[in-house]
Amino acid sequence: CMDDWLDHIIKVAKELFIEENKFDIMLEEQFLAITNYCRGLSYNILAKDRMDTNPEFVFNYDIGKWLNNTTNLSLSDFKSTSSKIMFCLTDEQYQLVQENISMHGNIILSWIKPRKGGGFAELLQEFWRHPILITHSKKIIQQDPKNSTSDCEKGHNG
User: Fold this and answer.
1) pLDDT at 82 over 50
2) What is the rounded CA–CA span in Å between residue 57 and residue 39?
3) What are phi and psi of 57, to 5 degrees?
4) Radius of gyration of the chain from Cα atoms?
5) What is the mean pLDDT of residues 75-87?
6) Are 53 and 44 in contact (CB under 8 A)?
7) Distance (Å) of CA 57 to CA 20, 38, 65, 133
């Protein structure tokens, strides 16, 4: 299960930070933000009911900008005011998962086929939820990497 795998990776990463005596209060806050972002991206992406629930988390860092940063700035350079992010799947992602399950079953490794410019990590990114910023007025600000209107913005959550 994707959630179990993610929990294992998070546990090992945290243990490594603790072993290196690097897990202070600031790193713990940043680590929690990163793990919540990862949980949001990968939440329930293969289940039949994956469109029924869109996880939401509050962040004090702009994780999206940090991930796209090409100058190797630390996450602390992306501290921001508190914001709520909802993680949504598009109808296209839903269909893509359905097609792969129909053809290959629910073992994600069997979905890998020769692909130009990508392997397993790139394949998984096709299925990750899209982070959508929710403003205080409940207006949703688009963060879809394709710069298209997401299904969440259209009011489709499942």
Assistant:
1) yes
2) 10
3) -135, 150
4) 17
5) 95
6) yes
7) 28, 11, 16, 10
